[in-house]
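quick one, two chains, predict together pls
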Amino acid sequence: MESILHINNIHFSYENKAALRDVSLDVKSGDFLGLIGPNGGGKTTLIKLALGLLQPNKGSIELFGESVSSFKDWNKVSFVSQKANSFNKAFPATVFEVVAMGLTPKIGYFKRFTTKHRTAVKQAVAQVDMSDYLHQNISSLSGGQQQRVFIARALVSQPELIILDEPTVGIDHANVKGFYELLHRLNKETGLTLVMITHDLAGIAQHASKLVYLDQQVQYEGSPEHFTLPETEFQVLRGIRA
Amino acid sequence: MIADFLQFEFLRNTLYTGLLIGLIAPLLGCFVVVRRLSLIADALSHVTLAGIAFGLLLEKKMATPLLSPFYAGLGFSVLASLLIEKLRNMFRNFEEIAIPIILSGGVGLSVIFISLANGFTTDLFSYLFGSVSAVSSEDLRVILVISVIVLLVIGILYKQLLVLSFDEEHARVSGLHARVIHFIFMLLTALVIAASIRIVGVLLVSAMMTIPVAAAIRLARGFKQTIVLSILFGETSVIAGLFSGYYFEIPPGGTIVVVSILILLFSFLAQKIMLATKRNRAFEKGVS
C-alpha cells in the first residue's frame, strides 16, 4: 500500500529540551492511526513536524513520497485542530461559509467561487449529516455539531489525509460516539487516511486500525487490541501520579 | 439642505467622501472586529494625529509646505501599522502591549508637535472631530484612490482574509501566506483610517470601523450579510450625520457617531423582537 506519511528517525528539541527522540512512523493509505501518549510526550510536535510547521533537528519526513520541506500539494492534506484553541466562537459565519473556507487554498487568489465549488460544499456538509444547518451561524451550534462542520471543511477539498488534533475535547459523550462513527465511516467507505491525536484511549481503540503510543519515543506501534497502557500513564489516570 | 450638498462644490466633496468612507470603513471594519483588532484602529488614528500635527507644524514653519497634514497623517499611519506588527512579533505572548505603546507614542508626539506649532488651530480642530467644509477636491481624489485600492485588495483577498480571521492556525496549516496577508490588511487599515479622518476626525474614526459592524453582527446570518448590513448602517450614519451636522453647525464626527450608536441601540431592539418572534413561532408549532 502507498505510504502517505513517512517519518524516519527524527529528533526535535525546543531550545535544549528534547521533545522527540529517534521517532519513526509509517502511515499507509487507508490507515486510521490513533496517536496517544502523555501530555508533553510530543504528539502535537510530531504533527507540526509532519505539516512542515516545524523543522526536525535530525531525520526526514515525507508526505506522499516527497520531502515535507518541498511538498506543494497541500490540497491532499487537511487538518482539524482542537477547535477550542483556535476558533473564535462568536464569529458570524454560516456553516456554508465555514466549509467553503476549506476550498480557499485550492481556489487561490484570483479565481472565483463557482457553482462547482458550491456543490462541493453542499456535498461535504451532507457527508457529515449537517445539511439542515447549512445557513445557520456556526456559533449557534453545539460543540459536537461544530466539530462535524470542521470535518466537512477538511473534507471539502477532497484530501487523501486528514490530521486531527484532539478533536473531541469539550464535546459531550453522546456526540463523541457519533463523531467516532463518522470518522470510522469515512475511513471505511472512502478509504480516507486519518491520523488522530487523542487522550480518549477507549474511544480510539474501538475505531483506529493502528495505535501509536508516543512519549518522546515511540513506545508502542501496532493494533489497538494488543496495547496495554504503561504503568505511569495508568497511575495518572487513577490519580496516583500528577 | 440636500440641495446645498449638491449645489456647493465643497459640500459635494464632503458628501462623496462621506459615502466612500461609509463604504470602506465598515467593510474593513468587519475584518478588524472579528479579528479582535478594534483597538489597533484607535492606536493608528492617534498616530495619524501626530502625523497631522507634524504636517501642520511644517506648514506653519515653512513658507511652502513640503508635506500637507493629510499626507503626513497618512504616512505616520502606515508607518505605525508596520511598527505595531514589529512590536506584536517582539512581544509574542503580550501582543496587546503594542497598542498602548503606539497609542501613547502617537499622543505624545502630537502634544510635542502641537506645542511647537504654538497650540491648537481651527484646522487641527477639524482634524480632531471632522468637518463638513474641510474636504478639498484633492482630498476627495486621494480618498477615491484609497477606496479603489481597498475594494480591489479585499475583492482579491476576501477568501484568504476570511480564513485568516476565522482560524489563524488553520490558515497557516492550509499553506496560506498568513503573514503577508496580515501585513497587507494592516496597511489597508492604516489607509482607511487616514482617509476617514477628514470627515469623522481622528478621535472618532475607529467608531466608523466598529459601531456599524457591532450593530450588524447582532442581526446578520453569516459574514457576507454582516458586511452588507455594516455598510448599510455605515452609509446611513454618514448621510444622517453629515446632514444633521451641517444643519446644526456641529462637527460631523460627533453626529455620525451618535447616529451609528442609535442604529446599534435599534439593532439590540430588533434582535430582541426577532428572538421573541422565533420563540412564539416555535411555541405555536409545539401547541399545534
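Chain A is about 35% helix and 25% strand.
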